[in-house]
Write a structure and sequence with these properties.
By secondary structure, the chain is an alpha/beta fold. It folds into two domains: 3-173, Thiolase/Chalcone synthase (Peroxisomal Thiolase, Chain A, domain 1); 177-318, Thiolase/Chalcone synthase (Peroxisomal Thiolase, Chain A, domain 1, 3-Layer(aba) Sandwich), CATH 3.40.47.10. The protein has ten helices and 13 strands. It has helices at residues 21-24, 32-39, 53-68, 92-99, 116-130, 153-156, 211-232, 250-260, 271-274, 281-291, and strands spanning 3-13, 17-20, 43-46, 77-81, 106-110, 135-143, 161-172, 176-184, 192-194, 207-209, 242-245, 300-307, 311-318. The strands form four sheets. A five-stranded mixed sheet has the order 1-7-6-4-5, with helices on both faces. Strands 8-13-12-11 form a four-stranded mixed sheet, sandwiched between helices. Strands 2-3 form a two-stranded antiparallel ribbon. Strand 4 (77-81), helix 4 and strand 5 (106-110) form a beta-alpha-beta unit. Helix 7 (211-232) packs parallel to helix 8 (250-260). The protein starts with a strand and ends with a strand. The model has no long low-confidence stretch (mean pLDDT 96).
C-alpha cells in the first residue's frame, strides 16, 4: 500500500472585527459598488492589537486538532505559511507550538506569500511520505492589515486577516495528497511586493501592486498549474469534484474556472466574506467547505494559489 498524507481535520480562525465596504469607504476614497464590481469583495476581518499571526494560527490549529480528534502532543511537525510573522525571528510556527503546549517537534515558517500554504503542504507531504514525520499541522496565517497602505485604495481594499489549518496524518490507501506542483519566477518581483525589509530598509514596508499585470499572470499560471497537477495525478478534469482556489479576486476565480472548463458551482468562493487573506485563504476556504458539507470524504479537490514572487502551485487531494 502507498503511504500518503491524509487530511484528517481542518480548522480556521478570524479576527473579531469584521469590516464592510461601506465602513471602509468612510476613511478610504472608495465605495461598495467600486470594490464589488472589481473584486467581488464585500467584507474583510481586521486583527485587533491582541490578535497576531501566531494567535490566529494557534486558534485555527486547535480547531483542526479537535476536528481530527488528535491531541496536540501527537504532532511531530508544524509548518506555518505567512508573509506577516509576529517577529523577524523566531518563526511564528514555534510560537504556535508553545501555545499548543508541544515541547518538542519540528516547527518552521514558509514564506511564499499567497502560495505559502501550497508550498507548506507540499513540504509536509514530502516529509510524511518519506517517513520523516507522521502527523503534521500545516497552517496559513496572516495579518496583512499590518502591511497595508490605507491611503492606497488599489491595494488596501483587497486584503484581510485570518488563518486556516489542516492536520495531515500518515495513512496507507487511496486517500490523501495525490500530487503537488510548485513554481516560482523572480523576474516579476516589481509587480507585487512589499517595499521594505530587515536587510534593505530596516522597516516592515507596505504592499505595492500592479493589479492588471498580476491579474493576467494569475489566470495563465493558475490554469496551467492546475492542468499540470491533474495530469500528473493521472486524472482528467471530469474527475475533479471541487476547486479550492486562492481567494484573491472573484474575476480571477471565474476566469480560471472557464479556462479549465469547470462549472462555477465547483469552485469554493469565500473572497466575498473574507477578502484576500494571502497564505490563509486556501485552508480557510477548505475548512468552510468541509464544515458546510460540500466537500465530502472520497471526493477529489484541487487546491491552487499564486502570490508575489511570483510563486504559484497546486495540489490534488482525495479527501
Amino acid at each position: 500500500m502507498t503511504r500518503r498524507a491524509v487530511i484528517v481535520g481542518t480548522g480556521s480562525a478570524m479576527p473579531e472585527r469584521r469590516v464592510s465596504n461601506a465602513e471602509l469607504a468612510e476613511t478610504v476614497d472608495t465605495s461598495d459598488e467600486w470594490i464589488v464590481a472589481r473584486t467581488g469583495i464585500k467584507y474583510r476581518h481586521i486583527a485587533g492589537p491582541e490578535e497576531t499571526t501566531a494567535t490566529l494560527g494557534a486558534a485555527s490549529a486547535k480547531e483542526a486538532l479537535a476536528a481530527a480528534g488528535i491531541d496536540a502532543s501527537a504532532i511531530d511537525l508544524i509548518i506555518l505559511a505567512t508573509a506577516t510573522p509576529d517577529q523577524t525571528f523566531p518563526s511564528s510556527a514555534t510560537k504556535v507550538q508553545a501555545m499548543l503546549g508541544i515541547n518538542d517537534c519540528i516547527a518552521f515558517d514558509v514564506a511564499a506569500v499567497c502560495s505559502g500554504f501550497l508550498y507548506a503542504l507540499s513540504v509536509a507531504n514530502a516529509m510524511i511520505t518519506s517517513g520523516a514525520a507522521n502527523r503534521a499541522l500545516v497552517i496559513g496565517s496572516e495579518t496583512f492589515s499590518r502591511i497595508l497602505d490605507w491611503e492606497d485604495r488599489a491595494t488596501c481594499v483587497l486584503f484581510g486577516d485570518g488563518a486556516g489549518a489542516v492536520v495531515l496524518e500518515a495513512q496507507e490507501g487511496d486517500r490523501g495528497i495525490l500530487t503537488t506542483a510548485l513554481h516560482a519566477d523572480g523576474r516579476y518581483n516589481d509587480l507585487l511586493y512589499v517595499d521594505g525589509g530587515p536587510s534593505t530598509t530596516g522597516t516592515v514596508g507596505k504592499v505595492r501592486m500592479k493589479g492588471s499585470e498580476v491579474f493576467r499572470h494569475a489566470v495563465t499560471n493558475l490554469a496551467a498549474v492546475m492542468g499540470e497537477v491533474v495530469e500528473k495525478a493521472g486524472l482528467s478534469v471530469d474527475d475533479i469534484d471541487w476547486v479550492v482556489p486562492h481567494q484573491a479576486n472573484l474575476r480571477i476565480l471565474d476566469a480560471t474556472a472557464r479556462k479549465l472548463g469547470l462549472a462555477s458551482n465547483q469552485v469554493i468562493v469565500t473572497v466575498d466574506q473574507h477578502a484576500n487573506t494571502s497564505a490563509a485563504s486556501v485552508p480557510l476556504a477548505l475548512d468552510i467547505a468541509v464544515k458546510d458539507g460540500r466537500i465530502k470524504a472520497g471526493q477529489v479537490a484541487v487546491l491552487e494559489a499564486m502570490g508575489g514572487g511570483f510563486t504559484w502551485g497546486a495540489a490534488v487531494i482525495r479527501m
